[in-house]
RNA sequence: CGGGGCGUGGCGCAGCCUGGUAGCGCGUUCGGUUCGGGACCGAAAGGUCGGAGGUUCAAAUCCUCUCGCCCCGACCA
């Protein structure tokens, strides 16, 4: 492919709107352009990357027994009303009306549409199992789209759904898909972890996220230093070792802390270690107020709290409710003497002489002791796991913290959707039953962004071979016709050998071509220059490596072919 | 949705506080010199200053409203 014929509008300066590396580079390097917030056009090389990713997904999923279909992007509202998600999904679901004022939605996911497809044509256990996937644009009207392709509103997602006659078979397929995902992300050249995850609004009982490790990731995960347990912090279990409750060390006494509501303010003001503070948070669970206590340096894991209470809905109390419960503004709450249920984290019980709010504006208390001052408190695991915590699954291991970008998610759904959608089949015993389902998603465009987050430097992108829009770039350094001649011959030889090659034939100075080549991030670069040509050699350089090598002209094509194959793991 | 910020040629920005009719760098076009890590010289094209209303002799600049975009937070198959 000739560079001069491609639209690759690179920019010398970073666009003002972009903050994270992948966003900056995708725009600077001419891969995409913004159309509206969270909505982008893919340019030629951007689309090539997406097609590469899609192809890997297709190959691995089909190899695993899944079949590709394509459902509509616009779904009739009836389907979403059937599953009750039309009401429950919230403003993220983009709703539209047609000319007859009938309701439709732009699909953010396709459980309903897929169930609808299957229930019409699949009636017997003999037709199961079935695993159907599609690669399609999705739309989610995010409150805050950000970071380019990482969290767009319109994005490309692979979503797959499997249908089974038994739970066991659905579980088998869950593991089958899990294995396929591992192969997929390995082939994409990504460093990732499969982590246990919360099932969220989609429901179900078993779930893993595939997280690409990157500092800029939105998710926090922990991974055991010793065993293979890894989990999203939303989900991560903690060792059930109740630290011994200590005896009270001091009498409770009020201290004046004018205007120091926030935990960091009080810590700074009182000059005590943060782990001697008790954070008191008021929540409303199914309409009733509760108090949750964690150490000052910890966070409440709301999922754990919800589970302990057995609540359907849980949210932080408003300022008004906090005042009703504590008699003080936010920032001065304490659990002592309150009439609502108190749930305390294990660590809070170990504090002998803590500091917490006095339930009085501008006052805290010292000498707080949970067992003495709030005897009715339930002591449970309530906090978010953090780096350094002991592993819940093995002895001696501890958690290492990572940031992750979620690129894939597998769910065991059970009959959450098949039941309300009446996606039933006739079993061998003559009984009609809802199908047991699994669902499996991969963010296609997000993979591109994640790959860049993991593979870039100051000069630009460093694509893994499998995702690069081209595998080799040829640059001529100079205008002599013999350089172009050699370059053209090499281009032909590589194309014949099945190597994807970009030939920069532009009438530009060598420096400019090199800069663009680094920016675009093609893994292998060949420079045709008169210095080397005089000796019958070409300069071969790997993106990201400092020194170049000189290879005899005749050997270059086969050498490149070999390296590409090697990088793709097919050597 | 709460908080903060920004909208000025294609891109990055200055000008705004203290109103006087728009400027810089990059890019683009033309001519010339250059030619292996974003060259130089000379010419040129290109802007309803996000939009609407208001104040004023006069508005990019002041006021009101509105739209868009970015960041932090809350939220999230």
Describe this structure in words.
The chain is an alpha+beta fold and 571 residues long. The chain has three domains: 3-237 and 402-452, Bira Bifunctional Protein, Domain 2 (BirA Bifunctional Protein, domain 2); 253-380, Alpha-Beta Complex (YbaK protein), CATH 3.90.960.10; 470-567, Anticodon-binding domain (Rossmann fold), CATH 3.40.50. The chain contains 16 helices and 31 strands. Strands 3, 7, 8, 9, 10, 11, 12, 21 and 24 form a nine-stranded mixed sheet that branches. Strands 16-14-15-17-20 form a five-stranded mixed sheet. It has a five-stranded mixed sheet with strand order 28-27-29-30-31, with helices on both faces. α1 (21-28) packs across α12 (444-454). The longest helix is centred in the first third of the chain and has 21 residues, at 167-187. The protein starts with 20 loop residues before the first helix and ends with a helix. It binds one RNA strand of 77 nucleotides through residues 9, 11-19, 34, 36-37, 85, 89-90, 92, 108-109, 111, 138, 140, 142-144, 146, 151, 157, 159, 200-202, 316, 409, 411, 439, 441, 475, 477-479, 508-516, 518, 527, 529-531, 539.
């Amino acid at each position: 492919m000739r560079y001069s014929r491609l639209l690759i509008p690179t920019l010398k300066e970073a666009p003002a709107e972009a903050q994270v590396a992948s966003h900056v580079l995708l725009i600077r390097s001419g891969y995409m352009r913004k159309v509206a917030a969270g909505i982008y056009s893919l340019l030629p090389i951007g689309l090539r990357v997406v097609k590469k990713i899609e192809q890997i997904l297709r190959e691995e999923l089909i190899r695993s027994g899944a079949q590709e279909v394509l459902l509509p992007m616009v779904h009739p509202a009836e389907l979403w009303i059937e599953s009750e998600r039309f009401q429950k999904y919230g403003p993220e679901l983009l709703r539209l009306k047609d000319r007859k004022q009938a309701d439709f939605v732009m699909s953010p996911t396709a459980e309903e549409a897929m169930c609808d497809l299957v229930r019409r044509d699949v009636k017997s256990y003999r037709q199961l199992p079935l695993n159907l996937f599609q690669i399609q644009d999705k739309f989610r009207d995010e409150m805050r789209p950000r970071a380019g392709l990482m969290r767009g509103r319109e994005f490309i997602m692979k979503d797959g759904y499997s249908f089974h006659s038994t739970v066991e078979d659905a579980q088998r397929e869950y593991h089958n898909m899990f294995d396929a995902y591992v192969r997929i992300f390995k082939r994409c050249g990504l460093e990732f972890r499969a982590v246990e995850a919360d099932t969220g609004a989609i429901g179900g009982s078993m779930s893993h996220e595939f997280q690409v490790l990157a500092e800029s990731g939105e998710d926090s995960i922990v991974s055991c230093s010793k065993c293979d347990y890894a989990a999203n912090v939303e989900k991560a279990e903690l060792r059930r070792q109740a630290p011994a409750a200590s005896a009270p060390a001091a009498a409770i006494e009020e201290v004046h802390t004018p205007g120091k509501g926030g935990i960091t303010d009080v810590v700074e003001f009182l000059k005590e270690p943060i782990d001697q503070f008790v954070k008191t948070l008021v929540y409303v669970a199914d309409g009733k107020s509760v108090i949750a206590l964690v150490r000052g340096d910890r966070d409440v894991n709301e999922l754990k709290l919800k589970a302990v209470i057995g609540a359907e809905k849980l949210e932080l109390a408003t300022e008004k409710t906090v005042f009703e419960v504590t008699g003080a503004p936010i920032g001065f709450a304490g659990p002592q003497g309150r009439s609502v249920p108190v749930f305390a984290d294990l660590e809070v019980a170990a504090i002998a002489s803590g500091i917490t709010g006095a339930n009085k504006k501008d006052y805290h208390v010292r000498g707080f002791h949970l067992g003495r001052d709030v005897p009715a408190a339930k002591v449970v695991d309530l906090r978010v796991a953090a780096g350094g915590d002991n592993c819940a699954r093995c002895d001696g291991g501890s958690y290492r913290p990572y940031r992750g970008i979620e690129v894939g998610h597998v769910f065991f759904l059970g009959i959450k959707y098949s039941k309300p959608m009446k996606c039933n089949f006739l079993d061998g015993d003559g009984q009609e039953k809802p199908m047991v389902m699994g669902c499996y998603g991969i963010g296609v465009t997000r993979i591109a962004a994640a790959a860049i987050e993991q593979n870039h430097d100051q000069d630009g992108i460093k694509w893994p071979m499998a995702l690069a829009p081209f595998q080799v770039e040829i640059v001529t350094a100079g205008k002599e016709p013999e350089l172009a001649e050699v370059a053209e011959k090499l281009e032909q030889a590589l194309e014949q050998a099945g190597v994807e090659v970009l030939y920069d034939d532009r009438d530009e100075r060598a420096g400019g071509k090199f800069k663009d080549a680094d920016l675009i991030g093609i893994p292998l670069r060949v420079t045709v220059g008169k210095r080397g040509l005089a000796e019958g050699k070409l300069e071969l350089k790997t993106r990201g490596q400092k020194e170049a090598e000189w290879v005899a002209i005749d050997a270059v094509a086969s050498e490149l072919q070999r390296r590409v194959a090697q990088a793709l793991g097919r050597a």
